Amino acid sequence: AQKVTQAQTEISVVEKEDVTLDCVYETRDTTYYLFWYKQPPSGELVFLIRRNSFDEQNEISGRYSWNFQKSTSSFNFTITASQVVDSAVYFCALSEAQRGSTLGRLYFGRGTQLTVWP
Amino acid sequence: DGGITQSPKYLFRKEGQNVTLSCEQNLNHDAMYWYRQDPGQGLRLIYYSQIVNDFQKGDIAEGYSVSREKKESFPLTVTSAQKNPTAFYLCASSNSDIQANEKLFFGSGTQLSVL
Asked: Which of A44, A87, B44, B88 is at 20 to 30 A from B33, Cα to Cα?
């Protein structure tokens, strides 16, 4: 079973629209970490955010914001006033740190391809 | 500048051939990882190493081998036993201290194709 589900395979928006990328995760651990990464066409994954399971505060960073809700096991990502440069594949990932595994043992969702049209 | 260098960017493998993908980091990270990315499949862990001379299998280790003789290097060999090697391979590293506010750093990847 998928530990991280990103149900949206592809999303297309027009510049300046807001867009939300969904992420639902599954774990039995009480301590875990959630991540969002961006993969532009160059291929390298770029870190966006890391959130631990004890911190449910929403976070805003410029045009980016994240909504973490343990009650629904979701960690959604919203881009406000999208730009063409936001076009990329976005991955949500889970690390079950409590099992003693190293931080990098991430479970990735299948990714959401976001295309922002001018 | 600190970072992770993967080479080559593109690699072609013939039937029955072993090929080795290079991954070097100068971030002084203890832990290194190899992920495989297939279209629409996300990233899957092949092998990881938390310290020199030690490594662990990930979720899809069959047909692959690694070594960790130096802290900064973690080469991945795709053996002839890997029947479907065509994929994008990403190397990553991190500080192995989970309590630190660390993240994975990724290289720019190697696209492996079968001739």
From this structure: A87
Query: What are the phi and psi torsion angles at B19 (to 5°)?
Result: -130, 150
Residue the block writes with tokens 């592809």: A10
Give the number of other Cβ atoms within 10 Å of residue A23's Cβ.
27
Q: Which DSSP state fits B6?
A: E
Q: What does the pLDDT look like over B32-64, one tens digit per residue?
A: 999 999 988 889 999 999 889 999 999 999 999
Cite the beta strand spans of chain A per DSSP E.
4-5, 10-14, 19-21, 24-25, 33-39, 46-52, 59-61, 64-69, 74-79, 88-95, 106-108, 112-117
Contacts of A103 in chain B (CB under 8 A): 31, 94-96, 98, 102, 104
Of A4, A42, A50, the CB nearest to B101: A50
Return the number of other C-beta atoms located less than 10 Å from residue B85's C-beta: 20
Q: Which residues lie below 8 Å from residue B70, measured CB to CB, with a gap of 6+?
A: B52
Residues from chain B that touch A50, judged by Cβ atoms under 8 A, are: 101, 103
Cβ atoms of B4 and B90 within 8 Å: the answer is no
pLDDT, tens only, A47-78: 999 888 888 888 888 999 999 999 999 999 99
Cross-chain Cβ contact A106/B96 below 8 Å: no
Q: Name residue, tokens 């720019």.
A: B108
Closest CA to B91 of B103, B109, B70, B68: B109
